Amino acid sequence: MPGGVARKVEDLRLVNLTKQFGGTKAVDDLSITSPAGSFFALLGASGCGKTTTLRMVAGLEDPTHGQIFIGDQDVTELRAFQRPVNTVFQSYALFPHLDIFENVAFGLRRRGVKDVDDQVIAILELVELSALARRKPSQLSGGQQQRVAVARALINQPDVLLLDEPLGALDLKLRRQMQIELKRIQSEVGTTFVHVTHDQEEAMTMADTVAVMNAGRIEQMGHPAEVYELPRTIFVANFLGQSNLIQGMKVSTGDVVEVSANGLGFRIPSKRNVAPGQSIVIGVRPEKIMVLDAHDESKLPAGHNRIYGTVTDVSYTGVSTQYLVETPWGQSIIAFEQNSIVGDRCELGDPVVLGWAPEHTFGLDPAEGLNAGLDHAVLELESDTEA
Amino acid sequence: MRWIRQHLIGAIAIVVLLYLFLPIAVVIAFSFNNPESKFNLSWNEFSLDAWTQICGVPGVCSAFVTSVEIGLISTLFATILGTMIAFALVRYRFKGRSSTNLLIFMPMATPEIVMGSSLLALFLNLSFPLGPVTVMIAHIMFIISFVVVAVKARLQGMDPRLEEAARDLYASPSATFRYVTFPLVLPGILGAALLGFSLSFDDFIISFFNAGTLVTFPIYIWGAAQRGIPPQVNALASLVFIAALVIVLSAQFVAWRKRKSLSVR
After folding, report:
1. N or C, which terminus of chain B has less Cβ within 10 Å?
2. Does residue A286 sit in the same domain as residue A317?
3. B86 located within any domain
4. Which residues form the ABC transmembrane type-1 domain (chain B) (predicted)?
């Protein structure tokens, strides 16, 4: 941190936070704790309430009810300019009439800091923009503007830094670069970062904790790997990466749940199952599935779940090969296979057997429907572009 | 053929520029004329009389000063009021907002002759004495429309996130206005004020109806035209043109210096 001052890092707690716009609940009884110094990602489709949540934390939107705590301080009633929180806006919102130096110095000056030069120079060095201090924002590239926006927020040493889709306007390559850059800055300054995004890959790459949001509620929260490997709702299974979901009925329960679906038997460790009733949806991620020629079924380890089908599509993507396999009951199963196997790949029309370990299977409650999380980005409830 | 094609646009541009600037050139040229008769219409001989004795004709300078004064005062009031109206219209939702929006346009859309004569009827009905005050009231009225339109456009074009960013960066509402909103709207306000001043200075029809015995510069010229316009009028008009030119050029110069200083650093 500029000046090298050690300071207290605070956590962010949202308690029963609700925001109602007219008849719609944009944010519905949200309770989250983002630990001090963590990189927290709020992931969801547009209209899920993630930006509204962020704006409430910033103080730009008043909650209908609920509370916001930073450390032990209740900031719910504080106005935006009184909160120890700074935001990196989606469109950066750099002041066009001020140069980069003055943009970055803005927060310090408003708080009456007399000598801002050293701090501004130090933070501009952190984001590698010292040479451009006297340029106007319009003379900078998108990536540079983005770094100015980060510097302008970070120089104030906020307890929590909010990032509202900060990389949305950048092209893919720059985005990857900035993801690494932001992660570096975060580990350097140690501040609690709350990052809002609709890009699941971005959330998983950057965050320590991912919260998947849907219709104003948190669907699931945890370490990215944990949420990906063991989704707890159909929405999360579909929204975060891809999943193959098959509807079935429980046959027996115990340490291992046995499921019958379309005349086949499947096994799931019961701790990986959340379906409460008889009816269940079993799921598996595409990269967990082994694709074998039907004659080679014996190579499949005993106890693996298996499905028989016909290859209807093969796409070679370099790193992996993606198969679409049609099952006898007409469902298409996606499977990714790393291109590290020696020998022939399966080809179009081949009869194949798909196998995967029970430990890679998850059981979900079918109540929300198999398509939950697939056709997102339709609702535009949230004021994403308009304030 | 090819030569024509390559130079056609340039040629047309020169013709258009001539068309625009020839009248001004004539006005300036005839300010150096020593007219034979009362009418300054044909070239006689070169003379600096009109410039050295610019107030040499009775009434011309006082009319000029009157117009400048009325222009400045009207612009000042209209700019302040118009800016406030624009903020109210853009920032607040109130009853009658859309009808206000529409009514603000009325003075711009109404023919000046109608506005001038109805204002006169109003002042006479109220037995309000005609003079500088009535002229200023009339001017403020129509300048406001232009200010509101210009400032509104500027405000609407402003990203609302800029003000949110200011609030997020510890700026109180008054500091947000002072350091972000106002500087961003200022070019619109200044532009509107310049336009307003020139509209007021230039106005003849509305002023003529409501001036009573007051003589503004346009009214003076109209009166003089009956008897022959003295070259002093040309000299004063040239001064106005030069002043406008200086304003435009200095604005360009400031912009150019800014760009230059940026590329050096």
Report:
1. N
2. yes
3. yes
4. 64-251
